[in-house]
Amino acid sequence: MKPDGPTIRAIRKARNVSLRGLEERTGLSRGYLSRLERGEIADAGEDKVQRVATELNVDLPLITFEE
Known about the structure:
This protein has 67 residues and is mainly α. Helices cover 55% and strands 6% of the residues. It has helices spanning 5-14, 19-26, 30-37, 46-56; strands spanning 2-3, 64-65. The relative contact order is 0.27. The model has no long low-confidence stretch (mean pLDDT 95).
C-alpha cells in the first residue's frame, strides 16, 4: 500500500496532533511516522496505514495512492 505522506502530515497538523501524539495513539514509532510523512516508505503495510487513518479519523483511500 502506497501512503500519501504529505496528505497525512497536512491532516495531522490540521488536527493539531503531534508526531508524539500519533505515535502514542498508533503504536508506531515517531521515526517511522516521520519517514512515512516524508514519502520515504513507498510500500507500507495496510494495517499500519489503517491505524494512522483511524487515529486521524479519515477514510483509508484519502491517505493512500491508488496502485
